[in-house]
Write a structure and sequence with these properties.
The protein contains 5 helices and 7 strands, in the order αβαβαβββαββα. The longest helix has 15 residues. Helix 2 links the parallel strand 1 and strand 2. Helix 3 runs parallel beside helix 4. Helices cover 44% and strands 22% of the residues. A 5-stranded parallel β-sheet has the order 2-1-3-6-7, sandwiched between helices. A two-stranded antiparallel sheet has the order 4-5. The protein has a single domain, classed as Response regulator (Rossmann fold).
């Protein structure tokens, strides 16, 4: 089964998988706890390398990715995810409200400002899952 088929099946079954990527373990764990309360599967990573390794191994419906990571940026992940798993969607997080994003909508589905509002995150995730069904 292709990654795209797995992602669609996960959405249809109501069991989407999300990858949270943030080098701050407190932020990653908090987001993981919130998302798990919504009964979605969640994995975490702290670096670009770790995130891409997981994307190659598993199918994720969505990724919530910090802009600044120790070994690159969230944009690096978004560009590679488009190649590895085009059906996956990337939500980019940043603590810099005025940051100008340079990548187009083809690599980033949405943006969030830290601290992340759980209601806003859930709304964005539901839009992603609806589009994948």
């Amino acid at each position: 089964m292709s990654k795209a088929d797995e992602i669609k099946a996960q959405s249809l079954a109501g069991k989407p998988r999300i990858l949270v990527v943030d080098d701050d373990p407190n932020i990653a764990d908090t987001l993981k706890d919130i998302i798990e309360e919504w009964n979605y599967g969640v994995s975490t990573a702290q670096t670009v390398r770790e995130a891409l390794s997981q994307v190659e191994e598993a199918s994720f419906n969505a990724m919530v990715v910090d802009f600044n990571l120790p070994d690159g940026s969230g944009l690096d992940i978004a560009v590679k995810v488009k190649e590895i798993s085009p059906a996956s969607r990337v939500i980019l997080m940043t603590g810099q409200a005025g940051l100008k994003m340079t990548e187009g909508p083809e690599t980033i589905f949405s943006y969030l400002i830290k601290p992340v509002d759980p209601r806003e995150l859930k709304t964005i995730l539901e839009k992603i899952f609806d589009s994948q069904r």
